[in-house]
Amino acid sequence: MDAWPLRHLVLRTPRLELRPDDDEGLYELVDVARAGVHDPAVMPLGTPWTDDLANDNGFSMVKFYWGRRAQFEAKDWNISFIARHEGKVIGVQEIGARDFGVLREVGTGSWLGLKYQGNGFGTEMRIAVLQFAFDHLGARIARSGAWVGNHASNRVSAKLGYVHDGTVGLAPRGERLEHVRLRLDAANFVRPEWNVSVEGLAECVQLITS
C-alpha cells in the first residue's frame, strides 16, 4: 500500500496533462493565479479567493489546497488536478463527490490563468474529468455551475450536454448574484473524438469509489 496513492494518478488529453496537486505544482499554480485569473472588476468565482492574492502572496491559496488534501476521505473527497500544457502549469480542474459508492454523482469546478484562456483548454480539462468519472469510475451524474452572466462557462456546459437544474443566490462580494446549477447525465454527455488516457487509477480506485 502506498501512503498517498493519488500521487500516481495521471489524466492525459491531446494537449494537457492533469495530476493531483503536489507542493511544487501548487507553487507554480500560485504564480499563475497572481498573474491574473479574471478581470478584477468581475468576480466569476463562487468564493472570491483571488481578492486575497495581493495581500498574502498566495499563502491562503496554498493552505486551501493543503486542507483539501488533509480532509480527503473515501466518502467525501475532492481531487484538485493541476493542468499542464507543454510542461507549464496553466490552471486547476477539480472533481469531487460525497457518498459516491451510493449516489454515483460528482461535482466539478475549474479555473485557468488569464493568459491561457480562449484556447479551449477549459473545455479539454472538463472533458478529461468527465470521461474519467463516467468511463473509469462509473459515475451517472456530473454537476457544475456558473453565474448567469458567465457566458463562456455556460457555453462550454451547453456544448457538453449539461442542462439547467435551477439557480441559487450567492454573494461572493456582498451583493446577490444568481448562480446556475447544471446537471449532466452520463447518457447525454457530448463526447469529443478523443478519449482521455488514465494512469495510476488501480492504486487509488478504492479510495474514490467506496
From TrEMBL:
It holds the Pfam family Acetyltransf_3. Residues 16-187 form the N-acetyltransferase domain. PANTHER family: RIBOSOMAL-PROTEIN-SERINE ACETYLTRANSFERASE. This is GNAT family N-acetyltransferase.
